[in-house]
What we know:
Blueprint: H1 4-30, H2 38-47, H3 67-90, H4 100-109, H5 112-121, H6 134-162
Amino acid sequence: xxxxxxxxxxxxxxxxxxxxxxxxxxxxxxxxxxxxxxxxxxxxxxxxxxxxxxxxxxxxxxxxxxxxxxxxxxxxxxxxxxxxxxxxxxxxxxxxxxxxxxxxxxxxxxxxxxxxxxxxxxxxxxxxxxxxxxxxxxxxxxxxxxxxxxxxxxxxxxxxxxxx
Length: 164
């Protein structure tokens, strides 16, 4: 049975890991490395209730009201869901003594979702195959998700440390 304490761990770990990934993306942007727009993620999500899953090019789809906040909300909800999935796989005891390897491996594995679900649905093709630099985009996604995995560990370790 999931207790409020456990649910709080899931939420805080998910938010912490997602925030670390965002800090990474912000640092890359400051160095001139482009990143996906969360507005486009919001646009994609906003079209789902209208029965539209796949787009030829999400940037050309009709804008959705409040698509940027919707994109950010989606991003954090997914991060929290992934934290819950990680804890479901490794067990809640991991939060008492978090280790890097399971979090890093899990975070790296989450790259499957953007490469094989979101990118194709948003018009970029499987594994960014319809972009100008598919390999570069796949590697960037893989690194970003490894950073997310590191964030899962860092957030869990921080929560465990402050809970002592």
